[in-house]
Amino acid sequence: MDKTFVNKGQTELKWVLVDAEGQKLGRMSSYISHLLMGKDKPNFAPGVTMGDGVIVINAKSVEVNLTREKEKIYYRHSNYPSGLKAVPYPRMHETHPERIIEIAVKGMLPHNRYGRSLLKRLKVYAGSEHPHTGQIHEKKA
User: Fold this and answer.
1) Would you tell me the crossing angle of helices 97-108 and 25-37 to the nearest 10 degrees?
2) Which domains does the chain show, CATH number per domain?
3) CB 74 within 8 A of CB 87
4) Angle CA(108)–CA(133)–CA(51) in degrees, nearest 5?
5) Which of 1, 12, 14, 68 could cross-link 64 (Cys pair, CB 3.0–4.6 Å)?
6) What is the rounded CA–CA span in Å between residue 52 and residue 136?
7) Which residues pair with 36 in a beta bridge?
8) What residues contact residue 41 under an 8 Å CB cut-off, 6+ apart?
């Protein structure tokens, strides 16, 4: 059985711009996690950081179905007694629309230190303005 070795210098990391306007949350999140892990590369190896960085713009205009819009609740806990916070989807969409995409992508990445390192290369912005114009190599929908 042959082993595949990937050296750190062999992979060229790029930045990809994804426009979230009019896209469904789940399909777009799975596409973003696919790009972050590098599964679109021909020399993909699990556990090796070889995916591209992703910049998401227009997070405020991402689409979800009506049931999720009415019933989805985001939970977090402060690790203190009675520290459970519950934020419904409409309030999260008004105040922090970029967190919706970050949470969805985080759930599709590995739940270990590799997934946390991949999540650092995801930049999400609510509007169409972003400070990464010099880094972008590709534009994808």
Assistant:
1) 60
2) 14-62+97-128 (3.90.1180.10)
3) yes
4) 30
5) 68
6) 10
7) none
8) 11, 50, 51
Kindly report, residue by residue over 46-75, the tens digit of the pLDDT: 878 888 999 999 999 999 999 999 999 999
Residue holding tokens 């995916």?
A: 51
pTM of the model: 0.87
Tokens in use for 4? 């595949």
CA-CA-CA-CA torsion sign (20, 25, 27, 31): positive
Structure-token pair, residue 69:
């819009």
pLDDT digits (tens, 9 = 90+) for 89-134: 999 999 999 999 999 999 999 999 999 999 999 999 999 988 887 7
The first and second tokens of residue 19, run together, are: 């426009």
What single-letter amino acid sits at 119? Answer: L
